[in-house]
Design brief:
The chain has 650 residues and is of the alpha+beta class. Among the domains are: 120 residues, Jelly Rolls, CATH 2.60.120.260; 117 residues, 2-Layer Sandwich (Chitobiase, domain 2), CATH 3.30.379; 115 residues, Galactose-binding domain-like (Jelly Rolls, Sandwich), CATH 2.60.120.260. 15% of the residues lie in helices and 36% in strands. The strands form eight sheets. The protein has a seven-stranded mixed β-sheet with strand order 27-26-28-33-32-34-35, sandwiched between helices. Strands 11-10-12-14-13-15 form a six-stranded mixed β-sheet, with helices on one face. Strands 1, 2, 4, 7 and 9 form a five-stranded antiparallel β-sheet that branches. A hairpin with a 3-residue loop joins strand 29 and strand 30. Helix 2 packs parallel to helix 3, helix 2 runs parallel beside helix 5 and helix 5 packs parallel to helix 7.
Length: 650
């Protein structure tokens, strides 16, 4: 047994905190309307991210251009974009033109003061098919030294969009969901049935998929079965849906508190069809206040062996710069449709040839250069590049750069160069089993093409947890996810990937989880079966999300040590910031007693007998993190054990 260093014991005791977690409600982040705001009022200024764009607008080069497509709800008009201007130090001023086609909508001065507010007027913008397509063109003035490159660009950060007008009241099922949705509240009966819960989960997932990168807040609530009318009014661009097998079959608009709500009803076996109808393109034909859907046939999603960059959502690119032009694109494993490795990309494009040397083309992922070659005089390139498994993530950003020597640094004296990327380049990959990378970064692609979801109780709390998890998974996926709500026994015996919810820790099947607890002893187990243990006196409870491999499938487990509030605290924390789901790493996340969640990574590359620089194996270090998290006024003893897991029982 490896002796525990005194310094590490002291470190554990230093970080002990007192307090146990008080029940935390499982709700989506609240988007409270402005004081006095009512349905139909103009919405408050919205972040560009809330309408599906980035809240940071980046203009590359001394003259840059950015295209935006702004969704526009009925009877509203986009009026202005506001933000904070961040200029390179050598820029003394300039302007931003707002263009729509050949029309100049406005010319807006760029303040020279650092971090000054900037307003871009959209007056006169035309709306076509609920969208306004515009181009922002920047023109910068500079003196002396200047280096206009992507890392030193003019940016407008924290950008918001303001609408004027009054939102149109929906009168038909087809226009119930607006082009911009701030929040969706799904109501189910307080004695919810499995079919109703399954419909709520599928509806939430479909709505989040429909709005793409816009972080729509989704909340689950309950109502008495005999009075399924929401009592809480909605704010601008918010919607309410009531799901019940007791309601008449079909989808219908009903009068709610100040604004119509959508009622989805029918027999249990038909309820899911009605939800799928709302989330499909067929909802546009429901031009009445009620509609009943017939059976829908969805083709299974099959991941092709060979795709193109265009298939992955990458368009043609052309960048011109007086410095070193670069283009970038992403390899999204959710667009590949499965966990993938051995990824190869065909890079096709052209570059300008000027000066005494053609320079060099390089390809990097992060700070690692994965390929480079001399740029010849042809001005074109066509090269296959292997992306090492070690740099792959759920979304891998690839950067192609054209570097040249002898680029003058005086403003206006540079030789302009260009670099293009053709979206017809092919992408090949192989299915990865186990996924690459593992853990949370393998989600949601390892849940494709369809996943089974099961809960142990099936009450309103479990439905809300399932909605929170599936909307989090969908936000990370570029394509819609398929989910089937089944029983625990069906999910346990199936070969499909699964999401299992046992909020109180009871009723889970026998699984090899990364982190387990028998009350006072917490065990961290790596994929080779080597373990480290933390013994706490008294025992401490925690909530956890964990990613496990069960034979050849991925299983996401949401559970706790006997207290559902601990699991709800994690899901509420993840829901507070839409970026947190995508940022998750490791194999498990645990949270205890108002503490920040701790992510645990198990690593079978270093056996317990080997020591890291700190004197601990990586698995033991994971146990230290767990012990530090869970020790709330408790005495912790860490035991490092080198052994293989016993076989699963039953």
């Amino acid at each position: 047994m490896q002796r525990w260093p005194t310094a590490h014991l002291a470190r554990v005791f230093v970080i002990l905190l007192v307090g146990m977690l008080i029940g935390s409600p499982l709700i989506a982040p609240q988007l409270s309307p402005r004081a006095g705001a009512a349905p139909g009022d103009p919405p408050p200024p919205m972040s560009l991210r809330d309408v599906g764009s980035s809240s940071t607008i980046t203009f590359v080069g001394q003259q840059g251009a950015v295209s935006l497509s702004l969704p526009v709800p009925e009877n509203l008009t986009p009026s202005e974009i506001r933000g904070t201007a961040q200029l390179p130090a050598f820029v003394t001023g300039g302007s931003v033109d707002v263009m729509q086609g050949d029309r100049l909508l406005s010319r807006n001065p760029i303040p020279s003061t650092p971090n000054a507010p900037i307003t871009l007027s959209l007056r006169g913008v035309r709306v076509d098919r609920h969208a306004a397509d515009i181009v922002l063109r920047s023109y910068l003035r500079a003196d002396g030294f200047c280096q206009f490159d992507p890392a030193n660009a003019f940016r407008i950060v924290n950008s918001t969009l303001t609408y004027t007008g009054r939102e149109r009241r929906p009168t038909a099922v087809a226009d119930f969901l607006p082009p911009v949705l701030r929040k969706l509240t799904i109501y189910v009966p307080d004695d919810v049935q499995q079919a109703e819960g399954a419909a709520a989960v599928n509806l939430a997932t479909a709505v989040v998929a429909n709005y793409g990168s816009a972080p729509v807040a989704v909340e689950t609530r309950s109502l008495p079965r005999n009075n399924l009318v929401p009592t809480t009014p909605v704010g601008p661009l918010e919607r309410q849906v009531v799901i019940s097998t007791s309601a008449p079959a079909g989808l219908s608009l009903r009068d709610g508190p100040g604004w119509p709500f959508l009622q989805i009803g029918g027999p249990a076996q038909d309820l899911l069809v009605q939800v799928q109808f709302l989330g499909s393109d067929l909802s546009s034909i429901a031009m009445s206040s009620s509609a009943v859907a017939g059976p829908l046939r969805n083709a299974p999603q099959l991941a092709p062996q060979v795709q193109t960059l265009a298939d992955l959502g990458v368009g043609d690119q052309l960048v011109t710069s007086s410095a070193w032009p670069t283009v970038s694109f992403g390899i999204d494993q959710t667009r590949l449709g499965r966990p993938s490795h051995n990824v190869r990309v065909q890079l096709v494009g052209s570059y300008s040839y000027g000066g005494d040397s053609a320079g060099q083309l390089s390809v990097r992922v992060g700070n690692r250069v994965i390929d480079s070659w001399a740029a010849g005089s042809s001005g074109a390139y066509n090269r296959w590049v292997d992306i090492p498994d070690g740099v792959l993530s759920r979304f891998t950003q690839v950067v192609v750069a054209y570097t040249r020597s002898g680029v003058p640094e005086a403003c206006g004296n540079g030789t302009r160069g260009s670099l293009s990327l053709d979206s017809s380049g092919e992408v090949t990959s192989d299915a990865a089993d186990p996924p690459v990378p593992a853990g949370f970064q393998s989600l949601p692609q390892s849940l494709m093409p369809r996943t089974q979801l099961a809960w142990t109780k099936g009450d309103v709390g479990d439905v809300a947890r399932a909605v929170a998890i599936m909307t989090g998974m969908q936000r990370m996926s570029a394509i819609p996810l398929g989910v089937d709500v089944v029983s625990i026994s069906d999910a346990t015996g199936a070969q499909s990937p699964a999401i299992l919810i046992a909020a109180d820790g009871q009723g889970l099947p026998d699984l090899d989880l990364p982190v387990t607890s028998d009350g006072s002893t917490i065990t961290v187990t790596n994929t080779a079966g080597q373990t480290s243990q933390v013994t706490l006196t008294p025992a401490t409870r925690y909530g956890t999300l964990q990613v496990a491999r069960d034979d050849d499938r991925t299983v996401l487990v949401a559970t706790s040590t006997e207290d559902t509030a601990d699991l709800d605290a994690i899901l509420a924390w993840l829901g507070d910031d839409p970026d947190r789901w995508a940022a998750m790493s490791g194999d498990a996340v645990l949270q205890v007693a108002d503490r920040e969640p701790v992510f645990v990574t198990v690593d079978d590359a270093v056996p317990p007998s080997e020591s890291s620089d700190s004197g601990l194996s990586k698995t033991a270090a994971a146990a230290v993190a767990v012990g530090a998290l869970c020790a709330a006024g408790a005495v912790a003893a860490i035991i490092v054990v080198g052994r293989r897991r016993r076989g699963r029982q039953g």
